[in-house]
């Protein structure tokens, strides 16, 4: 079972990295994009396992929006993808358990980003809007080994 989860995690990371490249190319995001029509396309990424839950749903590729809105959408999707990569890395490397956390749930949509951190017994350690507190906690968990992934929430 653990091997299957690890393979799925590796596939998710590869797909997220592809999505980052799509944003960088300027050609438009297509990986993890759902919906149809001129204004209803959404970047959606879901991940669920015992120690981590991710739920991201953000607008993308809105044809009738101005250039600034399109750039803002891409920047938000870029930040969400980078956060997902960091979170999947934290699980893979056992950082969540090492920190004494039982579960981390992270979400973002048009209304903003949120996270909830739970102890192994299920009690809430912290719930907050935005990612500032979460990023600080992740920096503490990774120490000097945060790697090249940088998350900047627009």
Description:
This protein has helices spanning 2-25, 67-92, 95-98, 132-142; strands at 33-34, 42-49, 52-59, 103-109, 112-118, 124-129. By secondary structure, it is of the alpha+beta class. It has a six-stranded mixed sheet, covered by helices on one side.
What coarse outline follows from CA principal-axis ratios? Answer: globular
Range of strand content: 15-25%
Helix content: 40-55%
Q: How many domains make up the coordinates?
A: 1
Q: Mean pLDDT, rounded to whole units?
A: 88
Count of alpha/pi helices: 4
How far apart are the first and last residues' alpha carbons, in Å?
Answer: 37 Å
> Largest sheet, described in full?
6 strands, mixed
What's a concise summary of this model?
It is built from four helices and six strands, in the order αβββααβββα. With 154 residues, it is α+β, with helices and mostly antiparallel strands.
Primary descriptors:
alpha+beta, 25% strand, 154 residues, single chain, 42% helix, six-stranded mixed sheet
Which helices and strands, and how do they pair?
Elements: H1 2-25, E1 33-34, E2 42-49, E3 52-59, H2 67-92, H3 95-98, E4 103-109, E5 112-118, E6 124-129, H4 132-142
Parallel strand pairs: 3-4
Antiparallel strand pairs: 1-2, 2-3, 4-5, 5-6
Helix pairs in contact: 1-2
């Amino acid at each position: 079972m653990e091997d299957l989860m690890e393979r799925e995690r590796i596939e998710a990371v590869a797909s997220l990295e592809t999505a980052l490249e799509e944003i960088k190319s300027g050609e438009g995001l297509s990986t993890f994009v759902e919906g149809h029509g001129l204004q209803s396309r959404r970047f959606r990424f879901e991940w669920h396992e015992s120690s981590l839950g991710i739920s991201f749903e953000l607008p993308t590729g809105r044809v009738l929006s101005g250039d600034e809105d399109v750039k803002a959408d891409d920047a938000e999707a870029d930040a969400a993808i980078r956060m997902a990569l960091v979170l999947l890395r934290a699980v893979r490397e056992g950082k969540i358990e090492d920190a004494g956390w039982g579960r981390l749930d992270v979400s973002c949509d048009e209304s903003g980003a949120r996270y909830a951190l739970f102890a192994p017994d299920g009690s809430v350690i912290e719930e907050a809007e935005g990612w500032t507190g979460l990023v600080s906690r992740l920096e503490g968990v990774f120490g000097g080994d945060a790697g090249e992934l940088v998350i900047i929430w627009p």
